[in-house]
Write a structure and sequence with these properties.
Structural class: alpha/beta
CATH architecture of the largest domain: Alpha-Beta Complex
CATH superfamily of the largest domain: Adenylosuccinate Synthetase, subunit A, domain 3
Number of helices: 13
Number of strands: 20
Shape: globular
Bound molecules: inosinic acid
Radius of gyration: 21 Å
Low-confidence stretches: none
CATH class of the largest domain: Alpha Beta
Largest sheet: 10 strands, mixed
Distance between the termini: 7 Å
Strand order of the largest sheet: 9-7-5-2-10-1-11-15-19-20
CATH topology of the largest domain: Adenylosuccinate Synthetase, Chain A, domain 3
Strand content: 15-25%
Length: 428
Amino acid sequence: MPTLVIVGGQWGDEAKGKLVDYLAPKADFVVRFSGGNNAGHTVIVDGEEFRFHLLPAGILHPNVTAVLGSGMVVCPKSFLDELDSTQAGGRRIGKPLVSGSAHVVLPYHRMLDQYEEEARGADRIGTTSRGIGPAYQDKAGRFGIRVSELVDKSRFRERLRGVLDYKNRMLEALGGEALDFESVHSEYAAYAARIQPFVGDAESAVFEAVSEGKKVLFEGAQGTFLDLDSGTYPYVTSSHPVAAGACLGTGIGPRAIDRVLGVCKAYTTRVGAGPFPTELHDDVGEWIRNHGKEFGTTTGRGRRCGWLDLPLLRRSAQLNSLSGWAVTRLDVLAGFEKVQVCTGYRLEGQRTEQMPQDTVALSQAEPVYEELEGWQGDLRAARKLQDLPSPARRYLDRLEEFTETPAAMISVGPDRGETIVVREDLLL
Ligand code: IMP
């Protein structure tokens, strides 16, 4: 069974990068399908840390074709900077392939991201300020400039001229300064010249790889509840991080996907605003943040931290048709005498086990907890389930039972090797 989609099961930052890196040696293709350089995938190899925002984390493996799919929005400078830094010192990496149908993030997108956040006032989303929302707005509004147009000299000049005239009127109306056409054009034409060799028909390449039975790993970014449709709207990103996004963002159909691995932390985190029923505003939340180094890879912001939310994970399993879970950061939670897991909510005096789909209702939902025994000690040396303390195994059992989804992998530390494979048959 050769295709596997990896998705974030919560609100992003579930350590998808590490799992992609772990599975990528078996893959022929690693394909990102949504988002842009708002993502932050950290991979640690032999103590050396790599941070990917735009390139698929799987690019660290030289035999892999690393695709940036049509569902992505591409900041060309970020692409080139990451490519340069990943290759520094002569490191051999995979072959990048950027879909010509992906959209380009331009300077006015970043400016508009800022203006839109200001306009939201107290309801600000807390975006990553990378221009992601405005770039997707342009795509849906048919103003977007595709990568294939960026690398076509005369077409790019013509498209930029038309779009920039309009964007400058918006920027000026919002109290900003108009951008100079020649300077934007010359900066982006220079990026285009360097990106051009990597641009191609990624949709056909992925389709052919799937048809030929090659192993294709789809690398999700962000998380299920940041999805534009299925997430906690409007506190979401503007793309589709759910498993279905792998189809939309690469041009394959649903039957081409064999398995879906949902990645979840052993607790819950969220960056930016929006409902988070199990958030902890006390010393425990602070302890998890510091102990788990829960600070954003992209923005450096401290992440909001809380207990594991099982109804949320069950909803995630449903939304993504999960085959299995990869549970990460189990090691971080060691040290508590007792741990809490949310098994339902109290909402308007009623108790429910269903995660409310409505954002306002979710923000009013009070978690109902079940107390489980905590575990102690350093888990990082564990390489099989039996190496884990029995309370940690019971914690995993409860997760599996509640979400009706098996744990396929457990991560007990940031390094590639600090991993337990439970169900090889659910992976690539
Ligand atoms: P945007 O994607 O920059 O528009 O941000 C929208 C929301 O998604 C904000 O709450 C961000 O904090 C969040 N977000 C975007 N990318 C990530 C990610 O990779 N991890 C976690 N949160 C993210």
